[in-house]
Amino acid sequence: MRRPLFLPTPWQTNWLLIVAFLSVGEALYIRYMAIENVTVELACQAAQNPLYNTWLCSTFRISILFFDHGIFGEAALAVALLNLIRPSIVLMTVALAAAGFGVVLHNADVAALAAAVLILSLARPAPATEQGPIQ
User: Counting CB atoms within 10 angstroms of each CB, which of 44, 67, 75, 116 has the fewest?
Assistant: First the structure.
């Protein structure tokens, strides 16, 4: 007998869609409202004024740091490979969110590879469940 493929349930699919839209939306917001907005970028980089120490400036600094080291794409690929080995909805959620950030925030090459690995993980058999004795 063949084991069934790893397919998310409709509830899990809705959850994955929400996570994907929110991660891409937040990444677009960070990119166009902080990174590519010259006035916000200069104000955050000045860091002399404590009034500019906001969540947007903190997110700006963290996203620039992650972009410089390619963390978004590499994290997405690492978690997607783990999901390929042992599929689970938690790993798929984390990989999908990291890939969404990676595609928008200039780590598109590795993040797109992670998305392809996520698609391949849907062709894997579902993990075997432990079944207790039949009563």
Answer: 116
DSSP string across 52-77: G-SHHHHHHHHHHHHHHHTHHHHHHH
Residue 123 in tokens: 């062709």
**Is 98 within 8 Å of 111 (Cβ atoms)?**
yes
Say if pTM beats, i.e. exceeds, 0.90.
no
What does the block give as tokens for 78? Answer: 């690492």
| Burial (CB count <10 Å: 0-12, 13-18, 19+), residue 64 | middle
**Per-domain residue ranges for the chain?**
19-121
Question: In whole angstroms, how far apart are CA 15 and each of 28, 52, 112, 116?
Answer: 20, 34, 20, 19
Quote the tokens at residue 36: 């590519």
